[in-house]
Amino acid sequence: MGGVVGGPFWVFIGCFLLALLWRVLNPSFLHRAARDGSPGLARLLIEAGADLNATNKDGTTPLYIAVFLEHGETAKTLIDAGAKLTITDKDNVTPLHSAVAKEDLTIMTALINMGFDINVKDQNNMTPLHAVVTKGDMEMTKALISAGADLNCKDKGGNTPLDVAASEGHGDIVKALIKAGAHVNPVDQGGKTPLHEALYKGYPDIVKTLIKAGADLNLADKVGNTPLDVAATEGHGDIVQTLIQAGAYPNPVDHEGRTPLHEAAKRGNPDVVKALIQAGANINATEKRRQTPLNLAVAQGHGEVVKVLADAGADLNVQMSAGATPLHIAASNGHLDVVRILIDAGTDLEARNSFGLLLPYIS
Hints:
- ANK repeats lie at residues 25-57, 58-90, 91-123, 124-156, 157-189, 190-222, 223-255, 256-288, 289-321, 322-354.
- Keywords: ANK repeat, Membrane, Repeat, Transmembrane, Transmembrane helix.
- It holds the Pfam family Ank_4.
- There is one protein chain.
- By secondary structure, the protein is mainly α.
- The protein has 21 helices and no strands.
- The protein starts with a helix and ends in an 18-residue tail after the last helix.
């Protein structure tokens, strides 16, 4: 009788223990310990044989979760136990990328010291150095540089860490990267250099740092824009002066045949126009549609720029493809103040366009 009763009982106990063991060794428990930040539980599970590198449905390991949630002690426990450092999630993000995203210097340093590949790339080909530079974290940047991070690696857009630092306005990091040996003139997929990036955002101090480090002042991007074109287009008068004084060529031509003076005139920036003229810009340069800087300024109604150009000797009667002169353009657009400026400057009142027409009627 006792044997009959005892048999099922021990079978039950055996099944219970097997179920318990399965639950202990189930990856979800170690993931839960990582999620909850419980190094003690993690150690018990590891000692019981839990798989350190098991992945959940999202493709993440316990180490990735611990790092992502900033559970440093738990992450260290997993690392010390031998968790693989090269495992990524479904987006190819590694524990190191996660540590960087959380700006956790302690975990990042631990991963590096354990031999983690510091140049590993995510789905956008960004390395940890790209990421810390984007955040502007100088301490983590220095740590990665000291560990031997590739200073010139490129992401999917062809951007190096220096491109990123220049674009984000992180001047101290720009200096640190250059001092460490970063190339000053890398070209991204659009043909832009770090100098272009700094100019688009208007960071004069970074521009000066790059120039001092040997940035190419006349390198054009894929649409023909040099750094001076960018500065003129964006209206950065002080930076225009800096570039010119450093030796930038004042008459580069982009794919539309326009010079920096065309861009400055079109945007109505008299200070930039004056600086370019003083630097030797061709005041009567024509682009593909035969428009001069004066034509563009007149069309936009930029009276102050028109006066600067007229006073500097711009051709007041230059004709476009349809034979229209600046006076025709000003009158057609109703820019009466510009018409007066041109008349006072001595424009030809009898000039006719290609159709033999004089000025349109102005109310």
